[in-house]
Amino acid sequence: MxxxxxxxxxxxxxxxxxxxxxxxxxxxxxxxxGRVVGLLGPNGAGKTTTIRLLLGLxxxxxxxxxxxGRRYRDLERPATMVGAVLDAGGLHPARTGREHLRIAxxxxxxxxxxxxxxxxxxxxxxxxxxxxxxxxxxxxxxIAIAAxxxxxxxxxxxxxxxxxxxxAGMRWLRDRLRxxxxxxxxxxxSSHLLSDVQDIADDIVxxxxxxxxxxxxxxxxxxxxxxxxxxxxxxxxxIAGVR
Length: 243
Prior knowledge:
Helices cover about 35% and strands about 25% of the residues. The chain is α/β, with parallel strands linked by helices. The protein has 2 domains: about 5-80 and about 155-235, Rossmann fold (3-Layer(aba) Sandwich), CATH 3.40.50; about 90-150, no CATH class. The strands form 2 sheets. Strands 5-6-7-3-8-9 form a 6-stranded mixed β-sheet, sandwiched between helices. The protein has a 3-stranded antiparallel β-sheet with strand order 2-1-4, covered by helices on one side. The protein starts with 8 loop residues before the first strand and ends in a 7-residue tail after the last helix.
């Protein structure tokens, strides 16, 4: 299959159970280039499990996930295709932010010169040589985002990337992701901050109880709920009366 003509991301009938309980039950959706897609759902709905399946971090019991027409593990240079942020807490506390990114660059086969570029891009140049054990959660999140950008990927997959960011950082992240998609990139963004998703998303996929309960454009979603993404989300997840 030709990567250049394949959708950036396809999930086809993904199933995954843990200890006999289905956490992902037939999840399927497709993401096109140049789009920001919000992946939404209640706690425990299966969002993070879905992301881990998409990136080949765990194996599906059934179904398949394709990244540019291939399984993630079959990509020749995955860092140039997909940048992911799954956990900002994975930094070694004794290493500096710069050291973390240099190690990540070496593992990804990316030039070390990219480290200074992404540090500047995420606003961490001044703190790059501090040990990460002294970083705030927001600073750790910026380093995690920098690592995702090292390979100049065509797609970003981000699980709660605004955790710990201050308002200025959240504004920067929204602008950066929107610009990335407008330049032809693709973004899959899992977040509980519906206002942020409404500000930048083109499409939304909502998961509840391990199943896709909505896969629509943002415009269509808010049109059915008087312009309110939160109202639509509460309706499709079956918790419309909960506040």
